[in-house]
């Protein structure tokens, strides 16, 4: 649902998309130019304000448990929240939409293949 599928959806709507990963060189230089960041890097609280430009929109897709067993995302929410125009929290952000889309895809596949 994220990564390449998300990039393709944005491209279809004439978005300019840059895909990065945990080993991308100069990652913060790239992310600081983005108007919208969809973060799914797989590392708890990885993205800090140093990676984000003022007024950006940040969509945190990550889901982890920290050292206190509290849910957190790939974005350091408390560090970033005052710098951005909008941010999805973890928990309470995009999780329900992710589940809905997975269910939709399962139903679509079952109908298509008559399962």
Automatic annotation (TrEMBL):
Domain Tetrahydrofolate dehydrogenase/cyclohydrolase NAD(P)-binding as annotated: residue spans: 1-112
Regions that span the bilayer: none
GO process terms (BP): amino acid biosynthetic process; tetrahydrofolate interconversion
Enzyme class of the recorded protein, top EC level: hydrolase
Keywords associated with the record: Amino-acid biosynthesis, Hydrolase, Oxidoreductase
GO cellular component: cytosol
EC number(s) stated in the UniProt entry for this protein: 3.5.4.9
Molecular-function GO term, any one: methenyltetrahydrofolate cyclohydrolase activity
SUPFAM superfamilies, A to Z: NAD(P)-binding Rossmann-fold domains
Stated name of the protein: methenyltetrahydrofolate cyclohydrolase
